[in-house]
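Shipment paperwork, digital attachment
Item: protein structure file
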Amino acid sequence: MRIDGKVVLITGASEGIGAACAAEFARSGAKLSLTARNEEGLRRAAGRDGLITAGDLTSEEVRLRVVERTLERFGAIDILINNAGVGFYLPSWSAPMEETRRLMELNFFAALGMVQLVAPHMRARRSGLIVNVSSIGGKITLPWMTLYSASKYALNSLTEGLRMELRRDNVKTMLVCPGYVKTGFQKHVTSGQAPEKVMRARRAAITAEECAVAIRRGVEREARTVLAPAVGWFLVAAARLFPGIVEARMAEMNETA
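Attachment content:
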């Protein structure tokens, strides 16, 4: 897909992967519509010409306002990048249900809500791309973030189902599964902290900018799935071929120091 001139709507765009995507797509000539709760961060990411809509995407009213303002300004939405998300480091067997529901509301239901608002517009135009930013944790369960992984597995399945549902309408979907990325994710988790062994492994993380480049390239070649870094495919393959070994290693990493 050619990005130049396309209208790109990015959620969770005030920092991290979302803000990096805003910069990367702008350099490729895209028209930006950005949303997140942090208005100041959105202004930095949007530059002079981007449209910003600050608000909490778990609100149906906010989602509707984002889409309506984008269509009023640009007349179209060519690419939707569902990037907003949150996590916590709590065992699934003890995590408060209220906190778990908040996680699912943003990581899954908000993304689905955006899709349900944007897909009819794309279907009518018989053109469009829905990009859902998941996680390597949506391919391999991370025991230090089991419920986060569950929310990303749900997003993965939604992305794959949408691809089949919208095929006849020429609307495509792309799944993005970042591995370790240097962002502010750690400081935004709602509870708990990662085990020390996990933190040490993240020293080899890629930057948000590198992840955004991988996403942009994936859009250009109309990829089905992007793992960033690409070495993540080896871990996915290992988990499928040797599940017991990978699970044991993951469980060991989850042990406290």
